[in-house]
Amino acid sequence: MENIYDLIIIGAGPAGLSAGLYGARAKMKTLIIEKDKTGGQIVTTEEVANYPGSVPNATGPSLIARMVEQCEEFGAEKIKDNIIEVNFDEKIKILKGEKGEYKGKAVVVATGASPRKLGVPGEKEFTGKGVSYCATCDGDFFTDFEVFAIGGGDTAVEEAMFLTKFARKVTIVHRRDELRAAKSIQEKAFKNPKLEIMYNTVVKELKGDGILESIVFENRETGEIWEHKADEEDGTMGVFVFVGYMPQTDLFKGKLEMDDRGYLLTDNEMRTNIPGVFGAGDCRQKVLRQVVTATADGAIASIMAEKYIDENFEE
Q: Which residues form the FAD/NAD(P)-binding domain (predicted)?
């Protein structure tokens, strides 16, 4: 007998796990497919203080572990595979992975987003050797070193403040003449004695021999270019990049409607332009990308998928 799932979820971050929990709890035959680490971006977060009801000292990994446990308690299946092709043309949706093919009556796309790169020479070579995209993952490595945080939004400023717990000095490098972060966040940053800000400045190149040893900056107003070298005793320094995220939606180009940045377009009930296909979490166009909104998306998508199946498939 052909194995057809009621609900297939692509991605096991908070949105995907929430969809899986709601799907399995509704007695739908539910499959969660994840190509990488379970949990998405939240597993790199040391503290989860703004998730309603989170216990003191809750971490991203501990929250995700509980979500996974809940999904399993209700019977959701979870496998690791990389989906390389999708066919949403028929009533039964077909997903082709590197390890197998999967068929489902409804699909929730919860593929998330990944950090945007600077795109400058040396960035790739020194990733993990001075360049990082995750303060909670790598901040400790730069204890008593000098660190530069690239960006000017909420995340950049918040992460820069977090890095001051480790680094002896943190400099925010922002391409504009004022930060874009919320005023309340800026106020905290301005009061931090270990934090400085370079305005109207961009990174042009990252240099070193095996590890990051210097950064080439450019002032966008004056055109001045200069090279900042790591302290001789340190031998290296840190560059943390916080310039936004890119939705992981390339797989669905030409199949699902997106905005000009590649975020999936859905209605308030998470429906995409294809009946039976829903979007949830950071890969969806929305005003706020947080764990709480991702889990809400996943719950809504799953409930609407159940409704779609009830209306379109006979028992």
A: 5-298
Fold of 4-115+245-312: FAD/NAD(P)-binding domain (3.50.50)
pLDDT digits (tens, 9 = 90+) for 256-289: 999 999 999 999 999 999 999 999 999 999 988 8
Q: Is the pLDDT of residue 1 over 60?
A: no
Run of H or E residues at 207: strand 201-208
Every domain range in the chain assigned CATH 3.50.50.60: 4-115+245-312, 131-241
Residue range 233-255: mean pLDDT, rounded: 95
Instruction: Show the DSSP H helices in the chain as ranges.
Output: 14-25, 60-73, 135-138, 154-163, 183-190, 291-312
CA distance 264 to 252: 9
| Coil, helix or strand at residue 79 | strand
Tell me the sheet residues that pair with 234. Answer: none
The answer to whether 134 is a known catalytic residue is yes
Sole residue written with tokens 């004022």:
178
Cβ–Cβ under 8 Å, residues 236 and 145: yes
Set 138, 282, 283, 297: catalytic member? 138
pTM of model > 0.90: no
Model confidence band, residue 51 (pLDDT cutoffs 50, 70, 90) = confident
Selected catalytic residue, list 36, 71, 81, 134: 134
Q: Can you read off the two tokens belonging to residue 312?
A: 């379109």
8 Å CB contact between 266 and 272: yes
Closest CA to 279 of 95, 54, 11: 11
Catalytic one among 36, 137, 154, 234?
137
Domain spanning 131-241: which superfamily?
A: FAD/NAD(P)-binding domain (3.50.50.60)
pLDDT tens digits, 61-101: 888 899 999 999 999 999 999 999 999 999 999 999 999 99
